[in-house]
Design a protein that fits this description.
Number of strands: 12
Bound molecules: 5-amino-5-deoxy-1-O-phosphono-D-mannitol
Oligomer: single chain
Radius of gyration: 20 Å
Number of helices: 14
Distance between the termini: 31 Å
Shape: globular
Order of helices and strands: HHEEHEHEHEHEHEHHHEHEEHEHEH
Length: 371
């Protein structure tokens, strides 16, 4: 089943060009053959108008699925005009968060069986919200219990660390954003550009997978570190959280994803010449702000690894005093899919080098079916 790969996680990382293709198959029209560019999501068709009229959309999930939702929040808000709030399922239940009939609650779960997410679904249903599922498992409890939804079709994910499901969840939620914005004339150009880039996404991921050896090399440099910080902002705040989760979950190394805008409110105190820090600084609407973060970190002798867009190395680090990883460019809302791939590879190689179990990390289960 693992083919030429040593571990499922490794196989699933490398499978992403194919899993993304499967996720989008039959759902996007490219504008050829006289059909307009657009998206068709069969499982949501009847409910799109209700979602557009919602007072708010609440994204609910745990772990990586929560991060995928966070990565998609901005594009859903932008294209639908509906405010999106984020909820970790356990916290929503602990707080007994108010939910209303006018809300749409979107439950994101690879397995479709996560206990907290499932309990949050029962909770939201009782309060009359429209419940939408985004799952990878046909017939799962969440797929059955929601009013409507979209399967991500990423194929079985065996490794406990979620990789290909994460990227497919983002692709699906981007398509949901496109479906919600479909009637707006003012967004048309933007929607069409995103559709073009969704269709290019598998190829971009194939390209970025070529960084495998470079990430193994980086893992060798970091193998004995105690801690690794990851700074991101905008769409890439989710990338920072997800990269840090991967590193702690499988490589059993402390890692923290940090919103770069919060840097001066505490995390800056951790910066010295020894602490490795990954900074996500690919080309997007807020790249200039990340440029300034890099300068401030370098001024404090930070030990930086910068992830930037191909051709931007000198612009992002004119002094050359940082390690740079260049990745292909794509639409802002999809850049997080490209950016997470080298960091998935890094966590994989760190785990192998540190001698830990890649597919069955200590104390963790693939599906968390108890609260
Ligand atoms: O099956 P789910 O997506 O609901 O699972 C949620 C989390 O338990 C899961 O994403 C977990 O964080 C992963 N092991 C992370 O790689």
């Amino acid at each position: 089943m693992k083919g030429n790969y040593e571990h499922y996680m490794q196989k699933e990382i490398h499978e992403q060009p194919d899993s993304l293709t499967t996720t989008m198959r039959g759902r996007l029209t490219s504008g050829e053959g006289g059909k307009p560019k657009g998206v068709v999501l069969g499982g949501l068709k009847e409910h799109v108008d209700t979602i557009r009229r919602s007072r708010r959309i609440i994204f609910i999930g745990c772990g990586t699925s929560y991060h995928a939702a966070l990565a998609s929040r901005q594009i859903i808000e932008q294209l639908s005009g509906v405010p999106v709030t984020m909820e970790l399922a356990s916290d929503l239940l602990d707080r007994q968060c108010p939910i209303f009939r006018e809300d749409t609650a979107v439950f994101v779960s690879q397995s479709g069986e996560t206990a907290d997410t499932l309990l949050a679904l029962e909770y939201a249903k009782k309060r009359g919200a429209l419940c939408v599922g985004v799952t990878n498992t046909v017939g799962s409890a969440i797929a059955r219990g929601t009013h409507c939804g979209v399967h991500i079709n990423a194929g079985a994910e065996i490794g406990v660390a979620s990789t290909k499901a994460y990227t497919s969840q983002i692709a699906v939620m981007t398509m949901i954003a496109l479906a919600l914005g479909q009637d707006s004339i003012s967004n048309r150009e933007m929607r069409e550009a995103i559709i073009d880039d969704l269709l290019r996404l598998p190829e971009k991921v194939r390209e970025v997978l070529k960084l495998d050896e470079a990430m193994r090399e980086l893992a060798r440099e970091l193998v004995n570190e105690q801690s690794l910080l990851v700074f991101g902002r905008g769409y890439n705040y989710a990338t920072a959280l997800e990269a840090a989760l991967k590193v702690k979950e499988v490589a059993l190394m402390h890692s923290e994803g940090i919103l770069a805008g919060e840097m001066k409110h505490g995390p800056l105190a951790l910066v010295d010449e020894t602490m490795p820090i990954i900074v996500l600084a690919t080309r997007d609407a807020i790249q200039q702000k990340q440029q300034s973060v890099i300068q401030q970190l370098l001024a404090r002798k930070g030990r930086l690894i910068i992830v930037c867009t191909e051709g931007d190395s000198v612009k992002m680090c004119p002094s050359g005093k940082a390690k740079v990883i260049e990745v292909p460019h794509i639409a802002d809302c999809l850049q997080t899919v490209v950016n997470i791939v080298p960091l998935q590879l890094l966590s994989y190689h760190l785990t192998v080098l540190r001698g830990f179990n890649v597919d069955q990390p200590r104390n963790l289960a693939k599906s968390v079916t108890t609260e």
